[in-house]
């Protein structure tokens, strides 16, 4: 077997329209309509598929942002995003990153990592 990448993640959401608005406005993700009226957000080559359901077990995932930490903090504050862990230093695959952990409307946790620019 030769697996190359993750194609899609299923994100449990209790209110589809509110979640679509949150991910589009807060993370500036394009929203797509797939077959059978399924909604998804595109993150590079991966899809984040919105799965309407009662959210019993929220998930956790991480994303990479190109913005400065100050810009991220300001943007999150402007949207009133629930910050679970403020900016802190972490190691990700041997690299130093600054991480901010936020929760979406269903308490799914998103770690936003940003890396120092090279050069």
What does the model show?
The strands form two sheets. This protein has a four-stranded mixed β-sheet with strand order 1-4-3-2, covered by helices on one side. The protein has a four-stranded mixed β-sheet with strand order 5-8-7-6, covered by helices on one side. The protein has two helices and eight strands; from the N terminus they run E-H-E-E-E-E-H-E-E-E. It has a single domain (8-114), classed as Roll (2,3-Dihydroxybiphenyl 1,2-Dioxygenase, domain 1), CATH 3.10.180. The longest helix is centred in the first third of the chain and has 12 residues, at 16-27. The protein is an alpha/beta fold. This is VOC domain-containing protein. Residues 5-115 form the VOC domain. InterPro entries: Glyas_Bleomycin-R_OHBP_Dase, Glyas_Fos-R_dOase_dom, VOC_core.
